[in-house]
Amino acid sequence: MNYIVFDLEWNQCPDGKEAGDPALPFEIIEIGAVKLDGSLQETGRFHRIIRPAVYPTLNSHTREIVQMDEKKLKSGIPFPDAAREFLSFCGGDAMFCTWGPADLTELQRNLKYYGMLSLIRGPLHYYDVQKLFAIQYETMKSRKSLEYAADFLHFDRSLAFHQALSDAVYTARVFQTIDPMIRHAYDSIDVYQNPKTKKEEIHAVYNGYSKFISREFDSKEEAIADREVTSTYCCLCGRRARKKLRWFSAGSKNYYCIAMCPDHGYLKGKIRMKHTDEGKFYVIKTIKVSSSTEADEIRIKKDTIRKKRKQKRR
Ligand SMILES: [Zn+2]
Fold first, then answer.
1. Nearest Cα to Cα of residue 238 among 212, 216, 273, 215
2. Which CATH number fits domain 2-185: 3.40.190.290, 3.40.50.140, 3.30.565.10, 3.30.420.10?
3. In this predicted structure, what is the pLDDT of residue 216?
4. Per-residue confidence at 314, pLDDT binned at 50, 70, 90?
5. Tens digits of per-residue pLDDT, 121-152?
6. Rounded-to-integer distance, Cα 12 and Cα 108, Å
7. DSSP conformation class of 264
8. Is the pLDDT reported for residue 162 higher than 90?
9. CA of 188 to the centre of ligand 1 (A)
10. Which of 30, 117, 141, 173 could form a disulfide with 164 if both were Cys (CB 3.0 to 4.6 A apart)?
């Protein structure tokens, strides 16, 4: 298997978000990628500049970041050609690696805009190198810039940052330093192409937590009433864990619960309600090993929300 470490640069509407095309808020203008083989040795590089078709003028913010101007963009090729060449460079047996989750979303959104999304089958398992860097060198939740990581690892910084190919090269170099155990334990799932049917639903187990990604529902209410959505299985032994505190909503997107496994103690459940570009709903549920302290915190959270709601009603 090959690893395709890639990075994109994109432009947005120069007259602000509201004036832009909602189907393509970010237009890709550059693709850079490094191919690594199964033993993480570099075997190829890919670089294309893309001639924009939706926003030919650079947004002032984009202009500051990317080292390009309109003249250089005009020398580029149309996105559909660049995308086909990129996917052909990737080959059939490849796993994507990126710095953070945004590049995969924008790649797929641009493909969809041109009616080419079927060229990549999702949901996609990939490596979020920013997350892997956090787990190996910092804490699970920390997220640092690529420049920070390059400094941290004492890389030679002779290549410019925010240029698609050089960012892909730096990301590949960080990826090469990740312990294979960490890499294998913490792959990521991109759900821009979320599961549509019960059969496509995703059940993934990681070190200390599990993740469930549901199919689509017409409404939030329908989603949160689904038995699979609300079930709580222990993420260590897979057995059904009894709820100590039933699911409750905190804000419009998040739900929490506490369950108890007889062998592994407290489990914390979290549901994030997501909506698709087409107005459907699906959930991402995580079940994590927890503690009595954390369980108490969740109880306090629930009480606080209940009190606030009561006050509002008065
Ligand atoms: Zn258990």
1. 212
2. 3.30.420.10
3. 95
4. confident
5. 888 999 999 999 999 999 988 999 999 999 99
6. 16
7. T
8. no
9. 23
10. 30
> Is the confidence at residue 183, as pLDDT, over 90?
yes
Distance (Å) from CA 263 to ligand 1 centroid: 5
Pairwise CA distance, residues 101 & 195, whole Å: 18
Average pLDDT, the chain: 94
C-alpha dist (Å) from residue 136 to 69, 133, 233: 37, 5, 28
CA 225 from chain center: how many Å?
26
Beta-bridge partner residues of 147: none
Residue ranges of alpha helices (H) inside the chain are: 60-65, 70-74, 79-90, 102-113, 129-137, 146-152, 164-176, 180-185, 220-224, 227-230, 292-313
Distance 265 CA to ligand 1 centre (A): 7
287 CA to centre of ligand 1 in angstroms: 11
User: Dihedral sign, CA of 146, 152, 155, 160?
Assistant: positive
223 C-alpha to ligand 1 centroid (Å): 26
